[in-house]
Amino acid sequence: MRTLAKTLALSCSLLAIAVSAQTQKKEMSSKKPMSQASQKAGVTDAEYTAQALSAAPKSIADGAAVVRMGADGNMKTLRKGSNGFACMIMGTDKMCNDANSMEFITAVMNKSMPSDKLGISYMLAGDQGASNTDPYATAKTADNHWVVTGPHIMVFGQASKTLGYTEAKDPDPTKPYMMWAAPPTNTP
């Protein structure tokens, strides 16, 4: 059981790296919440696609697939890709993920053991925040260590744990840090 917990801790390691602390601070101070219209299902596929692609650098976005969660909970492909990346919006957060990070995210969403494969995700539009201790949290609470991060990338998998970045529950989001350093308690 202890080995399983250690393995899970390593595989659930998520490294958020600030693209540039200066850019991030500027983005954070001028960042406006995503409009209510863009969070609703009424956003057209074209609008959704443009928003999702804003998470990645142009060189990645140009060949990325775009996927959208349907009302039935299934992913719908809006645009086929050619480079192995899939861009999407989860909640209010725009991201562009390679296949390994999509596999990790899908496993966590399904509350199953994530792979320890190395993966990368671009979130160059920043995020509206996430719990650094509970991947299933949907809002800030007094004890879920909510962290709002500006433009960044995430590195998934066991190898990210070896980089030696802080595993603090309340990290400085303008510096690299490990997210979900401890295994989620409700994942096998």
Structure description:
By secondary structure, this protein is an alpha+beta fold. The protein has one domain. The chain has seven helices and ten strands. The strands form two sheets. An eight-stranded mixed beta sheet has the order 3-2-4-5-6-9-1-10, sandwiched between helices. It has a two-stranded antiparallel sheet with strand order 7-8. A hairpin with a 2-residue loop joins strand 4 (85-90) and strand 5. The longest helix has 11 residues, at 99-109.
Structural class: alpha+beta
Q: What Rg, in angstroms, do the CA atoms define?
A: 16 Å
Beta-strand fraction estimate: 15-25%
Say what oligomer this is: single chain
* Main beta-sheet annotation: 8 strands, mixed
Short description:
The protein has 188 residues and is α+β, with helices and mostly antiparallel strands. The protein has seven helices and ten strands.
Q: What is the fold's blueprint, element by element?
A:
Layout: H1 2-11, E1 14-18, H2 21-30, H3 36-39, H4 45-53, H5 58-61, E2 65-69, E3 75-79, E4 85-90, E5 93-98, H6 99-109, E6 119-123, E7 130-131, E8 146-147, E9 152-156, H7 158-161, E10 177-179
Parallel strand pairs: 2-4
Antiparallel strand pairs: 1-9, 1-10, 2-3, 4-5, 5-6, 6-9, 7-8
